[in-house]
Amino acid sequence: MKSIFHIITTINRGGAENQLLVLVSEQIRKGYRVSVIYLKGEPELKEEFINLGAEVIESVSKLSTVVQPLAIAKLISKRNVVLHAHLPRAELVCLVIPARFILITSRHNAEPFFPGAPKLLSNLLARLVEVRARKISRWSGDNVRPAKKLRTTTQPLLLRPWGLIRIDQQSHPLMHVHLSPAAL
């Protein structure tokens, strides 16, 4: 059975975190083994993930950012895994993990990759992640224009509106949940 590790900056309630709850629920329903690794903060949504059947890994959040990639590498060693990074900090941590894995990233909003940094640095970091990622998913309708503009690799770029409902088996059976018009 393929294991899916979701790496996210925090599991405090927010848009990306709510979307992750739905995604994890669907993946578990489909029979995948799902773990959530958060990088900082208090685990506000921990019980909700556990109630869905996911494993929540807290140990990484207690480490410095420099050590986090090594700790994740140790957790995923000798497993057939997919790492799904949500939000830029998680994408950067996954970029430097010294292990073999499939990387999927989700861009949940239309902000620059690294807000507050010079535009050149922000774009460079975004492109480094894009080159490494097997798939890139954009979740917000606001991301359609920036997603097309920033695409510089041959990696599949998947545009998704915010939403819940069904797994899209054609693009990637492990990952994509999007809102069907009938669900509105």
Task: Describe the structure concisely for a colleague.
The chain has helices spanning 15-29, 46-52, 68-76, 88-95, 119-132, 144-150, and strands at 3-8, 33-38, 55-57, 81-86, 102-107, 135-138, 157-159, 166-167, 177-178. The chain has 184 residues and is of the alpha/beta class.
What does this structure look like?
- By secondary structure, the chain is α/β, with parallel strands linked by helices.
- It has one domain: Rossmann fold.
- The protein is 33% helix and 21% strand.
- It has helices spanning 15-29, 46-52, 68-76, 88-95, 119-132, 144-150; strands at 3-8, 33-38, 55-57, 81-86, 102-107, 135-138, 157-159, 166-167, 177-178.
- Strands 3-2-1-4-5-6-7 form a seven-stranded parallel sheet, with helices on both faces. A two-stranded antiparallel ribbon has the order 8-9.
- α6 links the parallel β6 and β7 (157-159).
- α4 (88-95) crosses α5.
- The longest helix is centred in the N-terminal third of the chain and has 15 residues, at 15-29.
- Mean pLDDT is 77; it is low at 141-184.
